[in-house]
Amino acid sequence: MNPEAATENGDSASLNEILNFKGAAEDNLAESKLFDGIQSKHGLADIPAAKISELMKLNSLESASTHSLFSVVSNILDDSIERKNGDIPQCVASLVKLVVQEIEARVSKQADNLRKQNGLYKSREERYQSRVKALETLALGTTEEHEVIMKKLQQIKIEKAKMEEKEKLQEQDLIRLMEDNDHYKMQISSLDAELESSKHAHEKDRLQLEAQLEQTRVESENKILELQCLLSESTKKVQELEAFSESKLVKLKRRELGYKHFIDSHFGSLQELRMSSESIRKEVMRTKEIYVEELSHFGFNLKGLVDAAQNYHTVLEENRKLYNEVQDLKGNIRVYCRIRPFLPGQSQKLTTIEYIGENGELVVTNPSKLGKDSHRLFKFNKVFAPAVTQEEVFRDTQPLIRSVLDGYNVCIFAYGQTGSGKTYTMSGPSMSSVENWGVNYRALNDLFNISQSRKSSIAYEVGVQMVEIYNEQVRDLLCSDTSQKRYPC
C-alpha cells in the first residue's frame, strides 16, 4: 500500500463525514418543519413565541441540543399548567407526545449512526494496521522513509486515541439520552393520568352544575307560581280594603256630624262646668288652709307621742326586770313531775300513785312493804296528772321563753328511765298535729312569735345546737368535724 492510496482512503473518510453532516442538517430542517406543522395543526397560539423560537434555533442532534429540547418542552408544560390552573390542555399533551416520538426517532437514528461510525472506525483501524505493517516493511528499506512512516504512525495513533475518546463520549451521550427518554416517558404517563383525572373532575362538575341549574329552574318556576298566587290574593285584598275604606269613610263622616252636634249641645254644659270649677278651686284653697292648721296640730301631738315612746322603753325595761324577778322568786331550779298513763293493754294493772296534791305533793305506795315503808312522799314544784294535755304541761314553762328573749339563760330538759315518756313530753308523737306538740316545738314557736312582735324595736339572732349525752360523753350532733364532736362530761 502506497501513500497515495492512504490519502485516497482519508479523502473517502472525509467525504463520509461531510455526507453525515449534510444528513444531520437535512434532519434539522425536517425537524423545524415538523414543529411548524405541529403548531399550525394544533393551534398552539397560547405557547410563548420565545419557546417556539428556541426550538427553531436547534441545528443538530448532538447531546447538548437534545438536552435543550427537553428543557424547552418542560418549560412549555410548566407554563401551560400555570395558565390552565393545574389542568393540561389536550393540545399540549399531543405536542409533548409528538416531541417525545421525535426524540425517540432521533435517539434511534443517532444509535444507528454510532453503530455505523463504530464499524467505520474498526475498518479504518484495520486499514491503519495494514498500513503500519506496510510502513514497517518499507522502514527496512531506507531510514528517511522509516522516519516518515514513524511520524505517520504516531499521527495515526493519536487519531486513533481521539476516535476512541470520541466513541466513549458518544456512548455516554447515548446512555444519557436513553435515561432522559425513560424519564420523559414517565412524565408523559403521569401527565396523561392527571389529564384523565381532570377530565373526570370536569365532567363531574359539569353534571353537578347541570343538576343544580335544573333544580334552580324548578325552584324558580315554583317561586313564580307562588308569587303569582300571592299577587292575585293581594289584589283581592286591596279591592276589599278599598271597599272597606269607603264604607269606613262614610261611617266616619256620619260620626263626625254626630260629634259636631254633641259638641254644640254640650258647649253650654262646659260653661257651667267652668263656673263650678272656679267654685271648687276656691273650696280647695280653703281646704288647704285647714289642712295646714291640722298638720301643725298633728305635729304637736306627734311630738307628745315621741316623748311617750321614749318613756315607754324605760317602762318596758323596768317591766322586764320585774317579770324576771318574779320568775326568780319562783325558784331558779324548778322540778315538775308528769305521771305517764297506762299504755294500751295495761289497763288491768294497779297504779302505785295514791295521792296527788295541788302544791306538788305526791304519795307513792309499795305493796311489797308494810307499815310506814309502804308509803313514800315526794315534793315537786308541780305534779301533772296522767290526764293533762301537752298544752297544760307547756303552760308552766312558757314564761321562761320570755326570760330567754330578755337575756336570761334558761335550760329545760326531761329526765327519767326508759319508757317513762320523755320524748312524748318534749317532742310529742311523730307526725303529730299542733295540739300534740311537745315542749320543744311549742317553745320554739313561742320564741319566734315574740321575736317577730318585737322586731320593730329589737333585732334577735337565733342559733341552734344539738348535743347528746351518752356514756359520760357529750356529742355535738351538728358538728361535721369528727375530731371536735366529743367532749368529756
Question: Any overview of this molecule?
Answer:
This protein is mainly alpha-helical. Among the domains are: 3-214, no CATH class; 332-388, no CATH class. The chain is 70% helix and 6% strand. The protein is built from nine helices and eight strands. The protein has helices at 3-42, 49-56, 63-83, 90-139, 143-329, 390-395, 398-405, 422-426, 439-453; strands at 336-338, 353-356, 361-365, 375-379, 382-384, 467-470, 473-476, 486-488. The strands form three sheets. A three-stranded antiparallel beta sheet has the order 2-3-4, with no helix packed on it. Helix 1 runs antiparallel to helix 4, helix 3 runs antiparallel to helix 4 (90-139) and helix 3 (63-83) packs parallel to helix 5. The chain is elongated, with a radius of gyration of 68 Å. The termini are far apart. Residues 332-489 form the Kinesin motor domain. Residues 146-219 form a coiled coil. This is Kinesin motor domain-containing protein.
Q: Report the span from N to C terminus.
A: 149 Å
Taken in chain order, the helices and strands follow as HHHHHEEEEEHHHHEEE
Q: What about the largest sheet?
A: 3 strands, antiparallel
Our count of helices gives 9
Q: Fraction of residues in helices?
A: 55-70%
Shape designation = elongated
Radius of gyration: 68 Å
Unreliable residue stretches:
1-47, 51-64
Number of strands: 8
Give average pLDDT, whole number: 76
Strand order of the largest sheet: 2-3-4
